[in-house]
What does this fold into?
Amino acid sequence: MHIDRIIQSVADIIAEYPDLNRSDAGILELLELILRNNDFEFDSHYYLQLIAVGMGRRFAPSAANIYLRKFDEMAMSGFQIKPKLFCRFLDDIFGIWPGSRESLTEYQNFLNGLIPGIRVTFTARDEIIEFLDTHVYKHRGEDGICRLKTKVYFKPTDTHQLLHRTSFHPAHTCKGIVKSQFIRFKRISSSYADYRQACGILTHTLRHRGYTPATLRKEQRNIWRNYDTTPKREKPETEIKKDIIPVITYYDNFHSRLNHRWTRLIWSNDVFSDVRVIAAYKRHKNLKDLLVWGRFGSAPIDQQQAEDEDTEAMLDVLMYVITRSP
It folds into this structure.
C-alpha cells in the first residue's frame, strides 16, 4: 500500500460521502501525518517507514478496504468473464469461477495489473478448497442438486496449544475456551458429521492437556443441541442499564477468596441495590514484567509496592461501603 494512494483513496471516498459535520481536511491532514512519520528503532539504528501502514494502527483494516475498493469493483465486473462469486476479507479472496483454468490464469494476470504492488495468487480446486479456517466443498444431495457446504479446516501447523487445564487460571477461563471452540465448530459445520469430526480432533488433543473426556463430550453435545447460531435481532432497550462496580484482585488463593467475600459484601448492602457487581482478576507481575520495560517509561515498580497499593485501594472501597451503610 503506497502512502500517496492511501491518502488519495481516503480523499475520494470522503468526497463521495460528504458530511457537513465532518472535518475532511483535518482527517486527511492527520492521516498523512501518521503515515509519513512512522519511525522505529532496530539494532541502534532509526528507520522511517516509507510504504504501507504501521503495524498495529487501528485504522489499518479500514484503510486497506478503502485502498482496494476499486480493485473489488474491477474484479467483479471489469473482466470479460465475471465470477459467479467474489468475496474478499482483507487479503484473502474466495470466489467461484465459471470459466476454464486458462481463463482463470488470464483473470489473475488482469487483477495483478490493476494496482501497483497488489498481486494475487490463486489456488484453484474442483471439489474442496480451504478459506481461512473453513473447508468449502461440493455436496450432491438426494435431489441431485449440488450445493456448497462448509466444515472446519485446521492448518497443518495448528498444534491446538490451548491453555492447559492445570494452569493457574480461574476455572471459568478453561471452560470458556472449550465452549468457544465448540461454538465456532458448530457455526462453520454444515452437518453434525462435520461438527463431530472437528470436535474429535480437538478433543483428542485436549485430553493430553488435562481436560477430561467426559466433560468435553458433555459440552460438545450441549453446544450442538442447545446453542443457537442464527443471527439475533437487537432487542429494544427497555431496561435501564445498571452501573457496574468491578471487583478486581489478583488471582491466587488469598485474593480469590477476598474477591468473593468483597463481592458478597457489596451485594448485601442496599446502597448498591441498583448496581451490577462483577468479579474480575488480574495476574501477578512475572519475570518479564520485572526485567523488560519501555525505554521512555519508568522502570517497573516493586512487586510488594504494587500489592500494597492494591490493598490500600481495596480498603478505601470497603471503608466507602461501610460509611454508606444504613
